[in-house]
Write a structure and sequence with these properties.
By secondary structure, this protein is mainly alpha-helical. It has one domain. Helices cover 69% and strands 6% of the residues. Strand 2 and strand 3 form a beta hairpin. The radius of gyration is 37 Å and the shape is rod-shaped.
Length: 131
């Protein structure tokens, strides 16, 4: 039978990788062999022996890898879009801050003009009031 990685074996068994390690590999219920690089491999016959059936096929696992690769690519695109949106948001926040400063300056100018007009009105006496 075919030998698969622990992750693929977990998918074939319908378990999580850690669950497969904790419940079956570390207790010796499933035997693990090492490939020439020292990485653990599990024979699909072991999965059949322990679980009675394979819930996914190695081809489905391969397709899963292709989907994961596509998902990672989409995640990269989404990340780029999010970064662009963050830049736009920060630029808009800066513009909003500048607009607030302009509004504050204009409000101050208006208050000064009103104060000058009020002061000028108070200083000027009507022509009919000589005193």
């Amino acid at each position: 039978m075919a030998k698969v990685t622990v992750t693929e074996a977990a998918r074939l068994a319908g378990l999580g990788r850690q669950q497969l390690y904790r419940g079956y590999i570390s207790t010796g219920k499933i035997s693990v062999e090492r490939d020439h690089s020292g990485r653990p491999r599990i024979d699909t016959a072991e999965i059949l022996r322990v679980f009675g059936e394979i819930r996914g096929t190695p081809e489905a696992t391969q397709n899963g890898h292709a989907e994961n690769s596509e998902k990672r690519h989409m995640d990269g695109e989404l990340q780029a879009i999010l970064e662009a949106k963050d830049e736009v948001i920060s630029e808009l926040r800066e513009r909003l801050r500048e607009a607030g400063e302009r509004e504050e300056w204009l409000r101050h100018q208006l208050e000064r003009a009103q104060a000058l007009l009020t002061d000028q009105r108070q200083r000027s006496r009507p022509w009919w009031k000589p005193w």
